[in-house]
């Protein structure tokens, strides 16, 4: 059996679970918002399924559930810094957002660096927060060492997601958000649980040999998407969103946590670009021109990224989010677990 | 038979060809420099082979061989603009470089926009010009509509190259530079000339069906690298380095030129990031930490991108660039053609 619940009611319920587990409202509210946004958009892998990992990471003492992030304005520069102070990235991002928007609109281009955060959400909520302000956004972060560089045979890079957004006035934005590995680690885990072999080219075993066995893949390494090109982009993300911002790389994250079962601790790099500023004085309106490009893509039967997600969102906003009875029971169970943890 | 010629002598010879064809020294010198850099680095597809295309584009009146680019400083902002005034991108880039370096060092992050240029060079010379100043760089531009978006069946996107560089003090930088199509268009042309079939997955014919016939591929469309992910990155490049900067997209370039036989006319986006500024106040030296990442990549037998190119460069700098007699004769022929053209 299933039932529908409104986005607001589910957000409140998830927030209550985090508060019950001892988190501050400042940490719980933005975290609940992105988890429910994932559920709303039909991204089950970033939805309420993630709550358990949050509680596990809290219980392991690897994240501060009451951290109060501090944002440092860019001053005359282009870099807004937010110290997450060991809390989740979500509260930290929200703290820095107005400063980044202001600076990008002023300079044409600005960056937000989030340091010392626990990060486990998708990147598209942050990209969309910027497109809502008329800005284009490019966001990236490392994860844990689980991907072999092209030509290598051992885990070193993370699944290192990269996300991009372009504002579309009056419509859902153009947004992509993907791992720079062939598949997300969660997809390999899903194959393992289902007892299904992996497609060729996803992974190698501990000895560096290609494998389609999910169990061997989890013990071995995933492959970057697109061969040496994806591998190079994954390496760029380690450099820019790990090393350059003075935060952990994917191998350092794994050393620090000792497991991939806890949410990763690292930093995040967010670039915001103002099409209004970049296009100023040039012919044509950039937003109108972009629509013609999107029409040309869709006109040949190709999809824009995130189209499925936006369709799920429209449906959930109209009809509510559909949860199974098992999912509702799991939420009650997690509530009790949170309460237990702080007793 | 072959003979070796020094980088300096070959640069002077190529420069003379362009001067003979009526180009100004300001346009000829930077163009000769990047073409000889391609030849020196063993990138035959961006070496002296390209001279003929330059002359063809000049003869077609699609580039101004005597353009004097104008750089507009960023003022209080982060965007340096260079109007190439219908000349080649190379002279324009050189004009804006000191302004970009100064602004990126000051703000931590800055952009150069080159507008109204003819562009046909690789992007790595520009990336390396920035790494020489201790900056990381991300560079992109559109090209001509020759690539179908993932799920589509007709040419729309360009081969849209993306290049990245990270400075390595005392060493060649970390640099990648690749097309966001599976293969560069030149590689398909090389298969056609050699009468060899293409690998599967490179291209589709005019009817949108997969093909391994190079001739059918040239009449049809190339595929993006890495499926929908590469397609999304190619689209991002149209948006940021075409539309956002108020310059032509790949389909607009093809409309304007009516052919892929001339060098493309569009703009270019260059982002420069200062690791010193981004890492300030954080633990660890970013350049030393990056070396540990590179060692870990190479320690498992994987190569860094551009390693082969740098090895060719070191050899050419020591022993000269080796040209065949046919290549030397072709240079003489091109010199005569340039002189003819302006008579």
From TrEMBL, chains A, B:
InterPro entries assigned to the protein according to its UniProt record, in alphabetical order: Mal/L-sulf/L-lact_DH-like_ah (IPR043144), Mal/L-sulf/L-lact_DH-like_NADP (IPR043143), Mal/L-sulfo/L-lacto_DH-like_sf (IPR036111), Malate/L-lactate_DH-like (IPR003767)
Gene3D superfamilies: 1.10.1530.10, Hypothetical oxidoreductase yiak, domain 2
Record protein name field: Ldh family oxidoreductase
The keyword Ribonucleoprotein belongs to this UniProt entry's keyword annotation: no
UniProt record similarity statement: Belongs to the LDH2/MDH2 oxidoreductase family.
Domain of life: Bacteria
Gene Ontology MF annotations: oxidoreductase activity
Keywords tagged on the record: Oxidoreductase
One of the Pfam families matching this protein, by short name: Ldh_2
């Amino acid at each position: 059996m299933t039932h529908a619940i409104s986005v607001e009611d589910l957000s409140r319920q998830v927030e209550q679970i985090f508060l019950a587990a001892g988190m501050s409202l400042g940490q719980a509210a933005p975290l609940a918002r992105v988890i429910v946004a994932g559920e709303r958009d039909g991204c089950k892998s970033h939805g309420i399924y993630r709550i358990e990992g949050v509680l596990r990471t809290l219980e392991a003492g690897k994240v501060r559930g009451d951290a109060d992030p501090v944002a440092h304005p860019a001053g005359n520069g282009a870099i807004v810094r937010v110290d997450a102070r060991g809390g989740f990235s979500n509260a930290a991002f929200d703290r820095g957002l107005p400063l980044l928007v202001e600076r990008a609109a002023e300079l044409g281009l600005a960056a937000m660096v989030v340091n010392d955060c626990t990060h486990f959400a998708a990147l598209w909520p942050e990209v969309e927060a910027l497109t809502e302000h008329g800005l284009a956004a490019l966001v990236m972060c490392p994860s844990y060492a689980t991907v072999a560089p092209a030509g290598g045979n051992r885990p070193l890079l993370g699944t290192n997601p990269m996300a991009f957004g372009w504002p579309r006035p009056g419509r859902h934005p153009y947004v992509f958000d993907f791992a720079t590995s062939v598949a997300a680690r969660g997809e390999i885990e899903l194959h393992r649980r289902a007892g299904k072999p992996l497609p060729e080219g996803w992974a190698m075993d501990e000895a560096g040999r290609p494998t389609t066995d999910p169990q061997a893949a989890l013990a071995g390494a995933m492959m970057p998407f697109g061969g040496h090109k994806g591998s190079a982009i994954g390496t760029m993300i380690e450099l820019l969103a790990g090393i350059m911002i003075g935060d952990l790389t994917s191998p350092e994250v794994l050393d620090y946590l000792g497991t991939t079962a806890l949410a990763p601790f690292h930093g995040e790099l967010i670039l915001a670009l103002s099409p209004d500023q970049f296009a100023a004085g040039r012919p044509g309106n950039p937003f109108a021109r972009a629509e013609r490009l999107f029409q040309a893509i869709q006109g040949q039967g190709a999809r824009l990224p995130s189209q499925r997600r936006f369709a799920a969102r429209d449906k959930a906003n109209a009809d509510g989010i559909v949860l199974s009875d098992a999912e509702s029971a799991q939420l009650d169970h997690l509530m009790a677990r949170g309460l237990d943890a702080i007793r």
